[in-house]
UniProtKB/TrEMBL annotation:
Keywords: Membrane, Transmembrane, Transmembrane helix
Keyword Membrane listed: yes
Subcellular location: Membrane
Keyword Transmembrane helix appears in the UniProt entry: yes
Name recorded for this polypeptide: Calcium:proton antiporter
Membrane topology: Multi-pass membrane protein
Major location (coarse): membrane
Signal peptide: none
Domain spans labelled Sodium/calcium exchanger membrane region: 36-188, 222-363
């Protein structure tokens, strides 16, 4: 740590501002190879800093509020990025950008993050436990939101295939906000105990270890650093996108690969935080992070693009292609069978990870 004006500045306090400075210096520019590598290193540092500050905030406010803070913060910034890219982009890419990004986020969180968390928990404890009531409610909300926003547009008849009419889009936006708000109310007020980690006997754990909680001032500073770090993470991911696009084009891969890579970068903070929680035998926290991020991605993106559609001149395609609809159906089915018992083994981890790898493979080879 560095001493400055009598105060100690740690790497976690310095890195978010370094990421913000790198973002300001590189925004809108195409980066040469060496500079792109340096920006990638700063991006990784910002991810680690975001996870650190999210854990400080979570320790102060407790679960499930801590998971909610990280999931909502990163999603709000991600949604702002998506909407700005759609308004400034135009063309076929803008028409499918929201759909591709939201679907990638859903698959990464429900199969990738959950699969890795289950794997870590099962390797350490053989059988990992969680609260089936909370995880089941979160999964049901994700499945409903995904169906309303990403599956139904493929089958409606008011507009060309994959598109909602203005009235249908407005309904989907309102329904998404209502469902997301209802879930947050349930998670944080009405049935908070459903979303707390449980021990081997099924008892609720309403604390995070025995360490002393950080002070309010420390938590507020970490919250500010968290927001700065997340702006850096999402912004630098966008800055790196031209380099990623060039690499994808050189490898003759589909354009959708770019969106998946950017989504993977943006979701790194949740991934690391979820894996750390699983390693501490707090799988419920991992599920809160993963399913909360998926839920926020849909519940906040759809209303945002509904408003942004006023300025969008081209079509807005939200409906999934058949292969993606099948993947979503398999994901929901596997997730239900994972959640219902309230405990999971290596088998469930393998199922989620195989579906995740299948998603990645079909993006590369559709």
């Amino acid at each position: 740590m560095i001493a400055l004006a009598g105060r100690k500045i740690t790497w976690a306090g310095l890195t978010p501002w370094l990421a913000l400075a790198a973002l300001a210096a590189t925004w809108g520019r195409e980066l040469p190879g060496l500079l792109a590598a340096l920006v990638a290193l700063v991006l990784c540092g910002a991810v680690l800093a975001a996870v650190h500050h999210a854990e400080v905030v979570a320790h102060r406010v407790g679960e499930p509020f801590g998971s909610l803070v990280l999931a909502v913060a990163v999603t709000v910034i991600e949604v702002a990025l998506i909407v700005s890219m759609m308004i400034s982009g135009g063309g076929a890419k803008a028409a499918t950008l929201a759909r591709d990004t939201v679907f990638a986020a859903v698959m990464i969180t429900t199969t990738g993050i959950i699969g890795i968390s289950l794997l870590v928990g099962a390797l350490r404890r053989r059988t990992t436990v969680f609260n089936a009531e909370g995880a089941g409610g979160a999964l049901a909300t994700v499945a409903t939101l995904a169906t309303l926003s990403l599956v139904l547009p493929t089958f409606t008849t008011s507009r060309p295939r994959h598109e909602f009419s203005p009235a249908q889009l407005a309904f989907a936006a309102i329904a998404s906000l209502v469902l997301y708000g209802l879930f947050v109310l349930t998670q944080t007020v009405r049935h908070r105990d459903y979303f707390l980690p449980v021990d081997r006997s099924g008892g609720v754990i309403d604390e995070d270890g025995h360490a002393e909680r950080p002070s309010l001032r420390t938590a507020l500073l970490s919250l500010a650093f968290l927001l700065v770090a997340l702006v850096g993470v999402v912004g630098l991911a966008k800055v790196e996108s031209p380099t990623i696009e060039s690499a994808v084009a050189s490898a003759d891969l589909p354009q959708a690969v770019v969106g998946v890579v950017i989504a993977l970068l943006v979701l790194l903070p949740e991934t690391i935080a979820a894996v750390r929680a699983a390693a501490r035998d707090r799988l419920q926290t991992s599920l809160n992070l993963a399913l909360g991020s998926a839920m926020a991605s849909i519940g906040l993106t759809i209303p945002a693009i509904a408003v942004a559609s006023v300025w969008l001149s081209g079509p807005l395609k939200l409906g999934l292609e058949p292969v993606h609809t099948v993947l979503l159906a398999i994901t929901v089915a596997v997730s239900i069978l994972t959640v219902v018992p309230g405990r999971a083994t290596l088998l469930q981890a393998g199922l989620h990870l195989v579906v995740f790898v299948s998603f990645l493979f079909l993006v590369v080879s559709p």
